[in-house]
């Protein structure tokens, strides 16, 4: 029954994505950025949905199971402040530039802003490379969910494969419009079923008050931050949500807005949406300690499967299927946006920019973009079979790289004196330091610098900012004609 | 009714929120507030406060000039995906 519900849910998603194609206007702008027509409500739901991943649901529950309620302060409330502020200062400006100059991808903007093809290419490569761990989160989350809710009937590798196939089908056919239609549907499902999951499970535990009392008696450390989180970790973690400023899929989503005013409700309601999704996930994660006192009790799937295990234990049958569909909604919501951005970037930044369009028809160019999506998904899928990391940790490393690139977009938007050499220095410093820290911290579950609580992202961000400033000031100022395009 | 002073005050409120995010005083507080652990209840309240400040920001300090700076672009090439 559970499996049947999930199959029906995936079929509905597929139909919505494919049906959206009927509204396709036949322009590249429509295929890549939904013709820049999204109003306030759809923009809020699609931006929020595109940012809600398996990380937010499965990862946060798993991490809360390990570290307690402090995970909410660490990732959720910091995101509630930082992400809308980035939308306000950066997103709206990028939207205006995109509309004025017709941009569809980040590389197009950075290339023109600093008059450098090589810089555009470097940022394309870095952004796609950093996106792969993010895609991995979706593939792994899909596999874990399907295996757990079916009690192992469906092997792990099938779930990831199903997610890839469904998303690829409607993204490749429906473009950004299909992605957004599905996002809106799935965000509603996620919010609705998330609440139901929380209510049902807490009810089975005897109510919120009873569950808290039991937790306070058996695992009091779960209700405070104590030794689980260091104060410096809380402070430096606030750098992580800056990653939205350089996520290519968020950049492309910003371009879909009808006007700048469309961003207004997104800013005001985003923190509340974050709380609505994260509070139940974090609480269910800590309540899982009541049913699974130690990690060994979790069995296959480990901490990333905590939420699904709670659903299976307390809400079996039809409800488990519906709730699992909610988890799938969260996973695919961001996964489709990422896959779409990868295809858009390859078509625009490589195929068109480097002149292959002279030798290819429009449909051939799109086909190449779709094939690139397939190649990236195959790479992500194969990696998901060999990488053995928690979804939360994998996400944090991915976000670290994107967040450390934040000075690049800030300088591009606000600093006239910034130069391509500053941007090169900043980007290369991120690449070098990210590789260094990943190679040192990959095996440690809670890596902070010298165990001080300082997250690597804070150090990389500091260095990349310094590199941007020094690199720009030591080199020739940009040409006046270039500046006039961006600072009229 | 948008004045630089009002905008600056709202930007300052964002900085204050950032500082308030680091609630060291609740680090080991085991009390329950409204049925939630103190450290969690505080941050739910923080999300609500952030939402209010951001609502004021979009009302009183919105960059209206952006819509004027972004006129409708020229028609772009058609494709058949």
Description:
The complex is a heterodimer of chains A (488) and B (81). Chain A has 488 residues and is mainly alpha-helical. Chain A is built from 20 helices and no strands. In chain A, 75% of the residues lie in helices and 0% in strands. The termini of chain A are far apart. Chain B has three helices and two strands. Chain B has a two-stranded antiparallel ribbon with strand order 1-2. In chain B, a hairpin with a 2-residue loop joins strand 1 and strand 2. Classes of the chains: A mainly alpha (488), B mainly alpha (81).
Mean pLDDT of chain B: 85
Question: Count the strands of chain A?
Answer: 0
Biggest sheet strand line-up of chain B: 1-2
What proportion of the residues of chain B is helical, as a percent range?
Answer: 55-70%
Which structural class do you get from the secondary structure elements of chain B?
mainly alpha
Instruction: Determine the N-to-C terminus distance of chain A.
Output: 61 Å
Beta-strand share of residues of chain B: under 5%
Total DSSP E strands of chain B: 2
Q: Tell me the series of helices and strands of chain A, N- to C-terminal.
A: HHHHHHHHHHHHHHHHHHHH
Which oligomeric state applies?
Answer: heterodimer
Distance between the termini of chain B: 47 Å
Give the low-pLDDT segments of chain B.
Answer: 77-81
Most extensive chain-chain interface: A-B, 63 and 47 residues
Largest sheet of chain A: none
Report mean pLDDT of chain A, rounded to a whole number.
Answer: 86
Element-level helix/strand string of chain B: HEEHH
> Helical region count of chain B?
3
